[in-house]
Amino acid sequence: MAIEMHSHPTGESEGVVDAEIIEAEEASRGDRAKEWAAHRRTQAAAAFAEQRARVAQRLQAWFATADVTDEQLAQHVERRRRLAQQSKEVEARGQVKTLQAQLRGASKEEATGIAMQLAGAEAQLALIAGDADADRMKVDGRALSRARWAKKAGRLASAVGVVVVYVNVVLTVEPMLALAALGAAPFGWWYLSRPLVDDKATGQAGAVDLTKAPDGTVMVVDQATGEAVPADAAPFMPDTLANLGRVSLIKRESGRVQGESDLVTALVKAGIITEAQRDETHLAGVIQPSGPGWTATVELPRGVKASAAISKVEDLASAMRIKKTRIEMSADTSDDGHEGRFVLWVADEDNPYGTDKHPSELITAERWDFWQQGVPLGADARRGRHALHLLWFSLLIGGLMGYGKSYLARLVAAAAALDPTVRIIVITGKTGPDWAPLRHIAHQWIAGATPGIIRQVLDVIGQTIEEMQDRGTELDRLYEEDPESVPEGKITPELAKKGMGPVLLVVDELQELLDGAALVQVPVDEDRDPEAGGRVKTRSGRDLMVEGFARYVRVTRFVGGMGVFITQRPDADSVPTKLREVCAKRASYRVKGDRSSKMVLGDDAVANGAAPHLLTEASRGVVVLDQGSDDGHVTLKADVIDLPQFKEICLRGRQLREEAGTLTGDAVAYGKTHAAEATARNLIADCTAVMDADGVDRIRTQRLVELLQTRYPDRYKDLTPGSLQSQLRDAGAGTTRKLGPIDGMANPNGYTREQLADAARK
Questions:
Q1: DSSP state of 274
Q2: CA–CA separation, 579 vs 552, rounded Å?
């Protein structure tokens, strides 16, 4: 707009301006200011109205819990249910432990009532644990609705509470705090009134917006990168996690499967089944507690073999994020089982067998019935006890050194030692104390692997086989004369009591015996071999030993022959196939690699889940036993008998055989020698004891006789100074010595305390 300005017409001054023109200019500016202010007010009113709408929309959505999805509510409800269930389970476990402690210290009268309470508490614990699967935690529509209304009520109550606290506390008690709070109001208004954006589409790269392509395809725009991709290609939640009714979204206890869907997902991850086979895979029954863990029977899709699934135990452990030692997989051998079904057991702990030693009940047993009771071995991870019935069979034991092979064989020998009808033969490839206690009862006892000993072993095996064949001839005669006395053509407990008892052959350090035998050539024919320069025909002692052991197992089984063969090097040389195949029962401790497992247990056992190669350093004493029956294999922690306890068992076994008249062979001669040695040791100990009691360190022979007869009258009533000198000389104490002045005598003969102590140490 042009403005014309000029001087006053009178020309009085150049600074005088026409007053009418100035007034017109001031009026024009005011109008414009009014118009601008009115426009701004209109804009502000529109913006404020939009802000109020946004604030109202956000508050309405907040109070209506529109920002909380059904999935989030379901997670919240499931989490609360699981926490409540876990709290109940902890309380129930505590009650069970308390009752167990009370039961251990209760009297017989109190024990019955406590045991009933304990049974009820354990049943309640099982019910609570059974409620933990995801199917029981599933959130239905009604629960979801209740959760949403509870959320709304909580938000409304929190808003009312904030207002009440502000009015009643802040304004009345802290005015300055109120003024400070008013300063935050503009920021709160701005935050609530900011432009609305779509918060539902967010990805891992940053916030995203939804838009449409020209062809109508829904696109996802990543605000961080600016890239737009089809919504179908955006990051998504896998079905196995999105299915809230089946799988928990919260971090759960390691190895704890929440339901069938979770377990099937693990099978997919392990490569046991494919994703396409998910719907064909299900459980036969339900997941249920089993000892310190849980078990499930899995029905695989048609065409998928259980043996293939069992071979992937390490893959399944990886999929479940637990250690392989917690998993046991075996073929389902029940009546309903088939080749496409396996049984899975998962322990609650990484080492379900524990580290404590469990003493064998044989330690305190006065005698044992090897026929009926078998050999008590130990407990599996589910605390189930197992026994080995070896009669009519033989056992092969393999594994790395130091994991318990000799302890397992010792259990077998101890059970046989306490049955006076069982004859024991011991052959060990190296000397040492491990089998020395059996010398008290063993019909034959051989130790070492020298050429002479190898020939002795071959002779013993040949003689034993010949004797057992004679026994078979006797059984044939008895069957002809009295068939009822030999009902199955085998020996019976009645025949065993008459001297035809079982024969247990214990062969330890098999690999040492075979290595030693390989260096020995044994003549097999008196005829001269022309091709060998007229020398006598010979064969390798190793071949003859393998054939001898295998033949013993084959031909003596029905007349009571049993063998226990122990080796610490499970390879083709140390476990010859000819011998392994005739041992129906096999046990393996930890080995390196499934090839060694198959070498000991056989291909079928390993294919059905036997896995000693998966045992770890912490698995000492844990053995995988395959008894060659339809029951398959079992993994257990073997009981323990220490060497001193084993000796006590063997001494009881000797006494039982002496009473039954079944002590034979080497044990008879060893007993005489041992008895003489024991008598000498006892005499030295008694002499030392009476000298200590009398407070002297030297004593005349006559005085020593008097003290012995006074303290042990029944034992030494006929003792004379001459016989005492003879016995002490045989015991290693030597002859009498000059003692110097003593008992009023100048220099009599006698013994010193040091002299007797030296004899005791020999």
A1: -
A2: 10
User: Would the CA dihedral through 481, 485, 490, 495 be positive or negative?
Assistant: negative
Tokens for 79?
Answer: 């989490």
Quick one: pLDDT at residue 159? 63
Strands 585-588 and 622-626, bridge-based pairing: antiparallel
Q: Report strand pairing: 288-289 vs 385-388.
A: unpaired
pLDDT of 94 reads 80
- pLDDT < 50: residue spans in the chain: 1-3, 10-15, 17, 19-24, 134-135, 169, 177, 198-210, 212, 218, 220, 222-224, 231-256
Sign of CA dihedral 455, 461, 465, 471: positive
109: tokens are 């009268």
The reported pLDDT for the residue numbered 238 is 31
Identify the pLDDT of residue 137. Answer: 54
Residue located via tokens 């699934």: 309
**Of 488, 630, 652, 656, residue with least CA distance to 559:** 488
258: left (phi over 0), alpha (psi -120 to 50) or beta: alpha
Tokens of 657: 């055989």
Three-state secondary structure string covering 485-505 = HCCCCCCCHHHHHCCCCCEEE
The Cα 731–Cα 364 span in angstroms is 33
Nearest 5°: the CA angle 223, 224, 225 is 95
Closest CA to 651 of 366, 447, 360: 366
- Measured between alpha carbons, how far is 627 from 528 in angstroms, rounded to an integer? 46
Q: How far is CA 513 from the centre of its chain?
A: 34
CB atoms within 10 A of CB 631: 10
- How far apart (Å, rounded) are the C-alpha atoms in residues 281 and 230? 33
DSSP helix/strand/coil, 68: coil
Residue 139's SS3 state is: coil
CA distance linking residue 480 with residue 496, whole number of Å: 19
Specify whether the CB–CB gap between 608 and 310 falls below 8 A.
Answer: yes
CB–CB of 434/406 below 8 Å? yes
**What pLDDT sits at residue 30?**
72
Whole-angstrom Cα distance, residue 221 to residue 197? 13
Q: In whole angstroms, what is the distance from residue 543 CA to residue 551 CA?
A: 12
Position 53 scores a pLDDT of 72
Distances, alpha carbon 263 to alpha carbons 126, 297, 302, 531, in Å: 20, 11, 18, 69
Residue in 561, 553, 562, 548 with CA at minimum distance from that of residue 517: 548
Give the pLDDT of residue 640: 94
Helices 666-694 & 753-761 angle (0-180, nearest 10): 150
> Looking at residue 247, what DSSP letter applies?
S
User: Residue 297, Cβ neighbours under 10 Å: how many?
Assistant: 18
Please state, in angstroms and rounded to a whole number, the distance separating the CA atoms of residues 398 and 409.
Answer: 11
Token pair belonging to 117: 């309470």
Residue 426: strand pairing partners: 445, 506
What are φ and ψ of residue 224, in 5° steps? -75, -35
- Can you give the pLDDT at residue 6? 52
Residue 254's SS3 state is coil
